[in-house]
Structure formats: structure tokens, C-alpha cells
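User: I'm putting together notes for a lab meeting next week and I want to include a structural view of one of the chains we've been expressing. I don't have a solved structure, so I'd like a prediction I can at least talk through. The sequence is below, exactly as it appears in our construct file.
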Amino acid sequence: MPLIPEEPQIHESAQGPRATPASGRTAPTPRPVPGPRPAASSRPGRPGPLRPAPPVQRTPRDVATKPAPSGPAPGAAAPVTPQIQLIPASVEGALDSAEEAVDLLLDSGRAPGDILVITTGDQHPWAAHELSFGETSYWAQHDAGDDVFYTDAGIAARAASRPVVVVAVNGGPEAAAVSALSLAHSRAGALLIVCGDPQRINSVLGAGV
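Assistant: Thanks for the context. Below is the predicted structure for the 209-residue chain, given as C-alpha cells.
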């Protein structure tokens, strides 16, 4: 009696069918991609994520009964001390050094209206030229504040403060140098550049600033 080959019995897997790769090994069933996780709850003894507390609205009565904080009065500006840079130069070369300092400031992004230049000896050629047209037009350019302004120690007291002040110690009496450096120190908002003889400048700074 011929044997009839038995048909293989197929057993259903609880996990569903598995794909069989070409190598003959059984590949695991792909795992589902996890979705977004729910927010973690706080564990006992471990604080959860901190949240900013809602702002507390104070009534006028609460504000009135709270003592005023100690310290400077509101709106009072703290004194600003400018940074001081010394550029060694002879009396004859102080003005050229000041011009180079101005060029570097402009190249670094400083606006022309941020810079004030004061000479202790001879006037800067620009100042001498503009003053030849009268003080009214000369100071009008200062008040416009859109360009570098040049002045000298004799009339510099009228100049307003600017972020950067450059002083060329290019001669003049000692009193003029002391006056110019003292004034420049009070007019400079962020930076004071002094061009001249270091020994003389240090003695003047010690005496007048």
C-alpha cells in the first residue's frame, strides 16, 4: 500500500507569522514605534518639574504699607569712570597720534559723533579753519553731533560729553594740560585716550584727575 506523505501541520503562533530572511534565520517580529510618552508623574520624595508661580497682584494698599527699599533714589545714575589709554608720543607727534587713534576708532565701528578731540597746544587745523567763519557756525557743528569735533583746552569747557574723548598733549602751558585732561576725564563716557609724553601725562593725571 503506497504511503501518503503527511501534510505538515501548521501551528498558529501567538505572536503572528514571522518573516524568514534569505539566510534561513527567523527574523524577530518588528516592534511598534513608541508614541509620545505621557508626562512623568512625580515620584514620592522627588519633586516634579518646577513651574513658575503665577504673578501676585498687589493692591494699592499692599504697596503703600510695604517699606521703601534702601539705596540710591530712583533715577540716580551711578558715576561712570572711563577707561584710560595712553599713547606715547612726542609733543610734535601728539596730534598725528590723535588722528591715528580717531581713524582706528572709526574703523572699529565708532560713529563720528561719538568722538571729541581736545588739544592742549596749537589748535587742530579743522578747528582753526571752522573758527575762521565764526564761533556760531563752529559750535553749531558741535551741537549737531554728527561728526568728530575738534577743540582746544581754552574753549573745551563748552563741549558736551561724548562716549570717547581723545586728548593730544601737543604743547601749551602745564595748566592747559591739567585743565584739558581733567575736563576730558569728566566728558568721556566710556574711553579716554591721551596722546603725549607718558611721564608728563602721568604727572598731570596725578595732579588734575
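A couple of points you could mention at the meeting. DSSP finds six helices and five strands in the chain. Confidence is low (pLDDT under 50) at residues 10-17, 19-23, 29-72.

User: Perfect, that's what I needed.
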